[in-house]
Amino acid sequence: MRFFVCIFLILLVTTSSACSSLTEKEEDIEKVEGVIVEKDEEENQILVVPDMTEDEIKDKTSEEVIAMAQDREGAYYSISSNSYDNVETGDQVVVYWDRNEGQEDSDPPKRGAEMVEKVTIN
């Protein structure tokens, strides 16, 4: 009987610590919604700017788009090649990134993305 109680306690402690680690990780994830205003194939990066529409980036030069990103807290996100192939400039996306992994000190900043989701607008 003691054997089963010991096994139960070990499983309980292990499960509890695993759940708390997951919760801590989830708390570190930031969510940013915005429009992809530029793609960099060489670096597999997208430049995402919140509070912007696809129409606002039409007929803009790269320099103008970057200036808009700087003004509106946009950021570059490094993403997987699969994700890169599935998004286009002008797409509305939600990007999840880990703030504990930090960001490069540039303007706009460069961050690593955990996940990118396309937002479908009805």
From TrEMBL:
**Which residue positions does the secretion signal occupy?**
1-18
Arranged from A to Z, the UniProt key words for this protein are: Signal
Region: Disordered; residue ranges are 100-122
Q: What is this protein called?
A: DUF3221 domain-containing protein
Q: Which domain of life is it from?
A: Bacteria
The answer to whether the entry has keyword Signal is yes
